[in-house]
Amino acid sequence: MSEVIVPERTAVAPAPTVAWTPLGENAILVRSACDAIPAKVPVAVDGNPRNRAQTMVLSWRRPGAETSLATGFLCLAPAPSVDASGSGALLIGRPGRPLRLILAAKPQPLQAFLSDLADDAGQAFPSVVDGLLEVLLTGAPNPRRLRAVAMLLQTVARPGGFVEVMGALGETTGPGEGIFLQGWTSHFAAGRVKLLISHGGLSPAHLETGTFERDDLGDGARGFFGLLEDCHVQRPGEIERLYFRGNDGWRALEVYERYVLLEPITVPGHLRDGLQRGTAPQATADKLRRASQRFDGRDTVCLLEEPVRAGIDSVTVIEGTGVLIIGWLFDPERRVGGVTLCSGSRSCAVDRLWTRVQRADVTAAFMEDPRFGPALASRRNNHGFIVFAPKLVPEAGQPLYLTFEVQGSGPAFLPLEPNRAPARSALERVLGLLDPRSSTANAVVERQIAPALQAAEIAPPRAAETLDVGPFDPEAPLGLVVGLDHRHRELSALFALLAMDPEARPLPIVLAAPSESFDRVGAEARRLARFYGLSVRLVAVEGVEDACDALEAGVRACRFQTVALLSGAAQIRMPGWLGRLERAYRARGGQCVASPTLLFEDDSIRWAGAWLEGEGANRRIANRFVGYPLDAVGNLGPMEVAAGASECCVLSRAAFIEVGGFARNYFTTAEKGLDLCLKLRMAGSPSLWVPDVEVYAVDDGETATPHAGALAQLADRTSFDRRWALAISNMKG
Q1: What CA–CA distance (Å, rounded) separates 561 from 274?
Q2: Are 360 and 381 in contact (CB under 8 A)?
Q3: Known Gene3D superfamilies for this protein (predicted)?
Q4: CA 21/CA 109 separation, integer angstroms
């Protein structure tokens, strides 16, 4: 057909008024009749030939109508102007003469428009609607067009089968996810199928599908399974119906009323089953196979033909911190390319973080297995691993598992059954499994234990109960806080020495102890306080792991202006100790931490000031006089040092509270005290050593596994250096 020109001005007969309905903001659907019209014409809006567009026309014969109205037609046109300047007219170019149409004053609702169209088109209505659907689905969809498509499909789509099984591949159908469908049909083949999904609205999608034979279906019908992609549906239950274009027109897949809804974890297994019994084009089969290679709750490592096996000794979720895993991976031929810890949408590549350890027991177990023994010719024993996965805490309701990328067979999975435990107790158990003499133990401590403890979000100790004995004054200018840990401490000597000290006797005393031992400790303390006439507040503390925790809770359970801290590991050696410490503290304007000399029980020095040694990056804090006889310090007066001793000291309560008290991310009290003193120093309260005040400090084990004490100290030193090395390298003094 030659191009049809719409003239600038054309004399035409009076134009008929036609029905129309809007489709979105920029288009309308128009129905009319004429003598003849081609399938593609230009249309000018508001009678203005400069505002025109090409449009497709759908037409049908109208038997019995006048010749001038023998052809009914339907077309899309640009929406007219909404202001008064618009004429409400369309000018359609066609061979011979243009066709001028006047739009009705009001648009018809879509449903009424389609009803009138069905009456006018008669038997041609299905084919007209089919063509209209093609037009409406061309180009970018909009909500109004899709609503029109949905109404049309409900009218013309014929039954095309049923969906009987559905399930989300993941917890959501976001990027990379999909919805599994299974059912039957006789109207599409395996491969990639375009669909329109009815789910309250209408949206496009694709179904990557395979087919399989079913004995319970009639001729030509087959079972299908597949995965919906590019889908806007969030949950399978939202799907009401699926439309697709078959060879003989539009068809509808109905969702069976009693459809089976699969749990996400079972969907990969259904995909694998479909691939085993069905067929699909190679591209579709590859895509479905990749989707099927997901965790479904089973241990698939044990099913591998390759010489790869794995086992787990323990998995501990450290609340708010991460996951600590101890296990082994038997992979003598190095087939595993990566190991990832997963839970829901969270993951961590643990093979980049773990520390490999010797596991001769694994070697021995597989040596006698004829399937794997030949692979062990190298006698490698480092099959074990310990790893801390930081910040990966299992998602609520989601399984925790390891994914192994195995060369030649894809991913394999190992489900994990985690326990939950406090950070310190969980990590101390790991220390107990290590040989302190091995270099591997040091690597585990530095790369796994120390980072885990530093990252742990450990709740502070909390005073659960308080009981006052005597006229206790919580607002006193000076008070004594005694902190006890879980070990049994003899209180009678402490109370007797306090009672005999004229400077300590009138002071209010806070005695903080773990709530687990509070009944025993509290009863003894009440008896002794009444006997000696001391003023005591007893505090039962929850969450105590060492004496520093008890001291922390004790300080917060009073409002003294100045506090004297005394750990349960410290023992008073002489009267007047507290008065002399306080006077040294006051001499510095109350802006310091005043500590005495700490002694072992044989009167040798345990602590006589912490000093800065070295320069630059090699600078560190050291205790110079450890093990020396007491006479080594001579008659020195009070002097400033790098850090004080938290086992016994006098300091400002406000300063203690302001810096956050003791850090809880250490195993031992030594680094906790050092950390506190450095925080106070940075806040303007340096440490002061008062040599002529002497206090005993019992040096007993602090960890739950005493033989691991060296490793606990290494972990604390590693953690301390990570936190303070840069600051110490720049300190003066």
Answers
A1: 75
A2: yes
A3: Spore Coat Polysaccharide Biosynthesis Protein SpsA, Chain A
A4: 6
Cβ distance 680 to 651 under 8 Å?
yes
Give me the amino acid identity at 443: A
> Which residues of the chain have a pLDDT value below 70?
1-13, 24-25, 47-51, 82-87, 139-141, 171-177, 373-380, 699-708, 733
E strand residue ranges, 169-320? 179-185, 191-198, 202-212, 222-229, 241-246, 249-261, 309-318
Q: Which phi and psi (to 5°) does residue 281 adopt?
A: -55, 155
Return the number of other C-beta atoms located less than 10 Å from residue 620's C-beta.
Answer: 17
Output the pLDDT for position 408: 82
How many whole angstroms separate alpha carbon 21 and alpha carbon 369? 77
* Tens-digit pLDDT profile for residues 29-62: 999 999 999 999 998 877 566 667 888 899 999 9
H or E element, residue 117: helix 110-121
Within 10 A of 7 (CB to CB), how many other CB atoms are there? 11
Q: How far is the C-alpha of 310 from the C-alpha of 318, rounded, in Å?
A: 23
**Strands 605-607 vs 620-623: parallel, antiparallel or unpaired:** unpaired
User: What are residue 357's phi and psi, to 5 degrees?
Assistant: -130, 160
**Residues in contact with 362: Cβ distance below 8 Å, sequence separation at least 6, in sequence order:** 311, 328, 330, 381, 383, 384
Helices 669-682, 547-556: crossing angle, 10 deg rounding: 40
* Residue 318, pLDDT score: 86
Do the Cβ atoms of 152 and 125 come closer than 8 Å?
Answer: no
Task: Quote the pLDDT of residue 10.
Answer: 45
Pairing of strands 478-483, 508-514: parallel
